[in-house]
Structure formats: C-alpha cells, structure tokens
Amino acid sequence: MTSEEFSELENRLDYYFKDKAVLLEALTHRSFYHENPDRADAYNERLEFLGDSVLGFVIVEYLFFLDDNFPESVMAKAKSYLVKEAVLSEIARSISLGKYLRLGKGEEHTGGRTKKSLLADAFEALLGAVYIDGGYEPARKLVMGLFKEKVDAIIFSREFHDFKTELQEKTQLLFNSIPDYQIIKQEGEEHKKVFTVEVYIAGEKFGTGIGKSKKEAETIAAQEALSRFQQ
User: Fold this and answer.
1) Which of 107, 124, 198, 218 does the annotation list as catalytic?
2) Fewer CB near the terminus (10 Å): N or C of the chain?
3) Considering only CA atoms, which of 22, 14, 49, 127 is closest in space to residue 1?
4) Mean pLDDT calculated for residue range 110-137
C-alpha cells in the first residue's frame, strides 16, 4: 500500500495508526502472505480472531446499557444478527475496505475484493488492529460510528428476532407439535407478489401474515400467534 492509500483508509475510519505495520497486517490475506513471503511478515487471521471478540463486546455493552433492560436472550439474538457475515460485509463495503486488501493472484482473479466472507473477516481484523494500536476506546468509537444506526434500527424493528423459531419452541413445549403454515392466497404479478399465510397449531388457526415473500408472511403470522400466547 502507498502512503496515500494508508491515509485514505485512515480518513474513512477517522482513526490514525501509530503503528502502520499492524494496519498492513490487518489488510493482508493469507493468499498474499503465501505467495509473497518476502513482502509480508504475517496475515490477518489472528487480528480477525481478536476483532471478533472486541466487536461482540462493544455491541453487547451498548445493548446492556440501553433503557430497555433487554434480557440475556434478546441481547444474544441481537448480537448474533449484528455480527453475521452479511452485516459485516455491508459495513466493510461502506468504507470501501475491499479496495485496500492485499490479496494473492487467485483471490484477486476470483473477485476476492467483493466476497462477503473475505470482507467480513477483514473488517474484524481491522477492528482488532485498531484495538491493538489504540486500545478499547478507539475500537469502541469505530464500532459505534459504523454500527449504531443499524443497531438502533434493528432494535426498533425487532428484525433480529426469530419469531418462527420461538413459536416452534413454544408449540413443541405446550402441544408437542410444530406450527403448520398454509399459503391462503397469492396475488400480484410475478415480480410483485403478495402472500397471505395462516399458521395453525394443533389444528387451530393462531395467526395470519401478509408479506412480499412466503418467509415474510410466515414470520408475521408467527409474530401474531406469539402475541396471542402472551394475551
């Protein structure tokens, strides 16, 4: 990487490394390391492992101190949603992280700079590098700067909550059966379909959901059924 590229990435992060070597390590994929042993002393998997733990802690800490007083089960589900590959790769793309990675020729030729798994791992390595270079507070600031809006949005929408799994667990416990989802209606053109789904438990209808996909409609039906249980 050139000094200009270093500065460009640091500006995106709003964090400036005292030790550029740790940043370089975070950006080095093992494919580059194995192909260029004279140009790389290490690759980023150790930093990735560290960054994964730092990320999880920062997110749980934020959730813990929210006024909602979420129980452990909710915090666990929210954390699991936020640290999944799809979310991390989206965050990585938002800072154009793929542009700065050092990849081997094989990874380069197979689109490594846009691979979700590779981007997610690289972001965790980058966070680990910030933690090593500057400590917890800069790492926390980086995570919250990039994640806070997303965290608040999923907390508000409960997008992370797996209503279908929760309903199945309840019905197995209470009725020794699993929910039966039935598509009642499909409307609209092929690319604009709307599905209506009803969920039955032990032969009785417990909820109805309408969505743009079968999965969305089933989720809404499960949520309605859970509300009925709570009532």
Assistant:
1) 124
2) C
3) 22
4) 96
Is 67 considered catalytic here? Answer: no
Question: Given the structure tokens 């790769």, which residue do they identify?
Answer: 89
Say which of 25, 52, 198, 218 is annotated catalytic.
Answer: 52
The C-alpha atoms of residue 56 and residue 58 are separated, in whole angstroms, by: 6
Residue of 98, 102, 153 lying closest to 123 (CA atoms): 98
What strands, in cross-sheet order, belong to the sheet with 180-187? 180-187, 194-201, 204-211
The tokens 């791992």 sit on which residue? Answer: 121
Lowest mean pLDDT among 68-72, 112-116, 206-210: 68-72
Cα–Cα–Cα angle for 42, 45, 49, nearest 5°? 135
* pTM confidence score: 0.72
DSSP-assigned letters across all residues of 101-124: -B--HHHHHTTGGG-HHHHHHHHH
